[in-house]
Amino acid sequence: MKKIEDYMTLQPNVSREYENISFTVEKIKLTPITTNITTQMVLTDNSKFTLSPLSMSVGVDMFDDQGNKLNLINGNGWNATDGSVQTMDLRYHPFEAVPKTITLKPYVRLYEENQMGVYQLDENNEPKIQYIPELEVTLPIN
């Protein structure tokens, strides 16, 4: 992928469910400049992201078929409904080459016990995360 015309859009609409969360990968766009994903999380038990620390603590890491993680550039998230559906558009650095597969690993950031809004930090002062393996999605790239 060297020219701006070199891009690929996938619309897999693949979903995974775990406990009260349904995670759907709606779209992935590979370009020479960024890798973009659009995902949707639905709280299936009628709870709401707006009332939950979950809304600010959910993220998605993206890996190629060699296990290399792309660095997140930025992203936007919004509730498209009464608060039970969260759509996220995330932008990552581009892949060096088109991978055979892309793996998306949703996670939650971990909070300090009894301190709502205060993340647990690792040795690099980054928020600690916990992957949700049941929501993981691996997609083949044709």
Describe this structure as you would to a colleague.
The protein starts with 7 loop residues before the first strand and ends with a strand. The chain has one helix spanning 54-57; strands at residues 8-10, 14-18, 21-30, 35-43, 58-64, 72-79, 85-92, 101-109, 129-131, 137-140. The chain is globular. Strands 1, 2, 3, 4, 6 and 7 form a six-stranded antiparallel beta sheet that branches. Strands 5, 8, 9 and 10 form a four-stranded antiparallel beta sheet that branches. It has one domain (8-134): Conserved domain protein (Immunoglobulin-like). It is an all-beta fold and 142 residues long. Helices cover 3% and strands 46% of the residues.
Features:
142 residues; mainly beta; Immunoglobulin-like; six-stranded antiparallel sheet; 3% helix; globular
Helix content: under 10%
Q: So, the CATH homologous superfamily? A: Conserved domain protein
User: Could you say which overall geometry the principal axes of the C-alpha atoms support?
Assistant: globular
- Measured by DSSP, the beta-strand proportion falls in over 45%
Structural class: mainly beta
Order of helices and strands: EEEEHEEEEEE
How many discrete domains?
1
Report the CATH topology name. Answer: Immunoglobulin-like
CATH architecture descriptor name? Sandwich
The counted number of beta strands is 10
